[in-house]
Amino acid sequence: MFNALMLDKQDERTVASIRSIDEASLASSGNGDVLVRVEFSTLNYKDGLAITGKGPVVRQWPMVPGIDFAGVVEASSHPDYKPGDKVVLNGWGAGETHWGGLAQKARVPGDHLIALPANITTRQAMAVGTAGYTAMLCVQALEKHGVAAQDGDVLVTGANGGVGSFAVAILARRGYRVIASTGRPEEAARLRELGAADIVERATLSEPGKPLQKERWAAAVDCVGSHTLANVCASLRYGGAVAACGLAQGMDLPATVAPFILRGVALLGVDSVYVPRARRIAAWNAIADEVPVATIESVATTIPLADAPEAAARLLRGEIKGRVIVDVNA
């Protein structure tokens, strides 16, 4: 038996509870060939939507949420993994179409796992989580497009969130001058510690704006969507690019084609759920090489599994800064 956070649908409401589950039940949760003893999971915005029922994340019921986890292989019929291997999982439908990481055990396809870099602990891996991994994918997308540090300022929206915090830190470490956009000016000192050179107020970007605006940014990482993303596109310099990975403000994009056809800017969509394995490994290796442990720890707090539902609600209300690690064994 093991403990898990379980989501049920009752009268169109999502009900979350901690349950003791028979390990045999994992066989029905998906076609997994690797059994993992989970050590840590985490809370992402998508997890908050799933646990509170405020978004259509869960596709099958009942569901163990948690799109991330890190732990140790207990049993495996997959050729790449053996008992004792430390592994990490991000996405692949975990917590959506099959049981995820907010549990003491998980059974998943080995192809969905990657070996955890040797210099990152399982706790640190969940301090990074999908947030840090997505931030690295965004930076790599910008650089693949041709963005370089000497091109000018790079804007990060939603900079106090998990993805935003890591994007600020990674970009600054790579030599970019980073401008952080946030609705919490009291967090300016923390953002500067992560590497932000300057802070802009969220309200200057979150309201409807002109189709073309003053050219300000060489590039951007956008975690917000909606009017914010539209204004970012309208404010990019000629030939600039924005890596879009979030929808905290909304899924809509009230923009025009003007920035794309008059300034040649590029909108780069960044997915983290179904990224091919080779790119996942490259992203995690880059994190292991570039993101210092102190930075990882500075953006994270740890909670027990039982506190996950309450923390998920606070996350959606914008009351949590940085990352939340869930110790599933606490």
Task: Supply the key terms.
15 strands, Rossmann fold, ER, alpha/beta, 30% helix, Quinone Oxidoreductase, Chain A, domain 1, 10 helices, 330 residues
Give an account of the 3D structure.
The structure is a single chain. With 330 residues, the chain is of the alpha/beta class. It folds into two domains: 2-116 and 299-327, Alpha-Beta Complex (Quinone Oxidoreductase, Chain A, domain 1), CATH 3.90.180.10; 129-269, NAD(P)-binding Rossmann-like Domain (Rossmann fold), CATH 3.40.50. It is 30% helix and 28% strand. The protein has ten helices and 15 strands. The strands form three sheets. Strands 3, 4, 5, 6, 7, 14 and 15 form a seven-stranded mixed sheet that branches. Helix 1 (45-52) packs across helix 10, helix 2 packs across helix 3 (162-173) and helix 2 crosses helix 8 (277-290).
Number of domain units:
2
Q: Based on DSSP secondary structure assignment, what is the total number of beta strands?
A: 15
Structural class: alpha/beta
Strand residue content: 25-35%
Helix count equals 10
Top-tier CATH class of the largest domain: Alpha Beta
Q: Which spans have pLDDT < 50 for at least 5 consecutive residues?
A: none
Please tell me what the overall shape is.
globular
Helix content: 25-40%
Question: In whole angstroms, how far apart are the ends?
Answer: 16 Å
CATH level-4 homologous superfamily of the largest domain: Medium-chain alcohol dehydrogenases, catalytic domain
CATH architecture of the largest domain: Alpha-Beta Complex
Organism: Caballeronia cordobensis (Burkholderia cordobensis)
InterPro entries: Acrylyl-CoA_reductase_AcuI, ADH-like_C, ADH-like_N, ER, GroES-like_sf, NAD(P)-bd_dom_sf, Zn-ADH-like_protein
Pfam families: ADH_N (PF08240), ADH_zinc_N (PF00107)
Domain Enoyl reductase (ER): 13-326
